Amino acid sequence: MSDFYLLTDDLTSGRYDLTVSPAWRMPGLQCASCGRWTANGHLRLDLPVPDSVREIRPVPVPLDQHLALASELGEARLSPGTWIGPLSGKVENVSGVLPDILWQGNAIPLFKTSVLRNLSKLDLPPFYGCALDDVDELYECPQLPHTAELSDQSFESAEPECDACGRKPAVLGKALSLVRGPEKAWPMFRLKDAPSQVVASAALVSALKSFGVTGISSVALGYE
Fold it and tell me: Global pTM?
């Protein structure tokens, strides 16, 4: 049995179109060395957004301006494209019964209240409410740690890290394995080198299955 599992949408549950967006997002980065880029999977829904920042359009900016914006938000550094503030959105084109966990892509899972109640004994990070039209309140975990790393063999291709901004472009392969787990024994976390991916411990996956939670699928990860 694996210690860790990649979580994805369960395409056999009821179908829907979910669209959510944050109160504001960090601009993309226009790096002088490696070009324009934006990261997926970074959320800081607990950060307040000053009016002076909210008025800035989230279009790509140079590195010095990006760092200045992060500093104004009280952070040493935030990844380009980080979602900030509470989420809101809507669910459309529902077919069948809505599952217990809804996904936007495979990067943002939203949990129903009943799921979190069942998982209350696990040491989960804080969850924040997400207001959706015509749907009971859902919850998103905004600050999953990004400390676990994949092995080099998990990537079909990879480029050297940019000396200026730290970006390391890579394409994931089909077979993934961890070379380093999370710094803390979190039951759910993201990957440092693939932040849009959500990973869960075996204990969390077992709990989800035992409660019959719908809308989620898990794939075992190797551990080198």
Answer: 0.86
Helix, strand, coil abundance in the chain, percent, nearest 5: 15, 40, 45
Write out pLDDT tens, residues 210-223: 999 999 999 999 87
Q: Are 151 and 181 in contact (CB under 8 A)?
A: no
Nearest residue to 77 via CA among 132, 26, 129:
26
Amino acid at 40: N
For residues 83 and 67, give the distance between their C-alpha atoms in angstroms, rounded to a whole number: 16
Is 14 a residue whose pLDDT tops 90? Answer: no
Residue by residue, DSSP assigns 3-50 as SEEEEE--TTS-EEEEEEEEEEEPPPEEETTTEEE--SS-EETTS---
Spatial distance between the Cα atoms of 140 and 108, rounded to a whole number of angstroms: 8
- Classify residue 144 by its DSSP letter: -
Angle at 45 between CA 39 and CA 46, to 5 degrees: 130
Tokens in use for 118? 């069942």
**Which of the pair, 114 or 184, is modelled with greater confidence?**
114
Q: Going by DSSP bridges, is the β-strand pair 83-95/43-44 parallel, antiparallel, or unpaired?
A: parallel
Which token pair is 210?
A: 């035992």
CB count, 10 Å around CB of 110? 26
Instruction: Say which amino acid occupies 214.
Output: T
- Is the pLDDT reported for residue 136 higher than 80? no
Candidates 50, 6, 43, 8; CA nearest to 25 is 43
